[in-house]
Amino acid sequence: MTEFKHISVTETADRLARQEVVIADIRDEQSFASAHIDGAYHLTSTRLADFMQQHDFDAPVVVVCYHGNSSQGAAQYLVQQGFDEVYSMDGGMAVWQQTHPVISGTDE
Known about the structure:
The protein is α/β, with parallel strands linked by helices. The protein has a single domain (about 5-100), classed as Rhodanese-like domain (Oxidized Rhodanese, domain 1, 3-Layer(aba) Sandwich), CATH 3.40.250. Helices cover about 40% and strands about 15% of the residues. It contains 5 helices and 5 strands. It has helices at about 10-15, 30-35, 50-55, 70-80, 90-100, and strands spanning about 5, 20-25, 40, 60-65, 85-90. Strands 1-5-4-2-3 form a 5-stranded parallel β-sheet. The longest helix has 11 residues, at about 70-80. It is globular, with a radius of gyration of 12 Å. It starts with a strand and ends in a 9-residue tail after the last helix. The relative contact order is 0.27.
């Protein structure tokens, strides 16, 4: 893959339920702590190296932000770093929270 792809909230939820994707949430600390997708990795610039060491470059990654805009640049960056299958979730957490559960805290 030379470019990231777009993925809907529904398809993300379906693939997450089948444990087929890794969720990388790029929102700020407070927003992530307030509400995030269960199992999401809080991907910040300071945690990027850890993310790259902990996750298989062959595993599909879905990048999540507030509205699906900032995630596009981050998704393309991950592609450039060598991740094979990267998606930007359209609508971001704003859409996810309308129909899917979230958790709070900073476990990931």
